[in-house]
Design brief:
Helix content: 55-70%
Strand content: under 5%
Shape: elongated
Length: 56
């Protein structure tokens, strides 16, 4: 029985898997700024008495 080629590929080593895992969870600088901007916007709109509050 002949196995598919993808089964014959060499699996990545421990160091390679660790490097990919660390790089996967590290956000870029613009993603960090986007989260901070979204948080600031949400606080401005939904804070009681903020710009999203109904007029009194």
């Amino acid at each position: 029985m002949d196995y598919p080629d993808r089964w014959k590929q060499k699996l990545p080593g421990e160091e390679e898997r660790r490097r990919k895992a660390q790089a996967h969870w590290r956000p870029t600088w613009w993603q960090g700024l986007g989260v901070l901007a979204a948080l600031a916007l949400a606080l401005a709109v939904f804070w009681p008495g903020g710009c999203g509050a109904p007029p009194t």
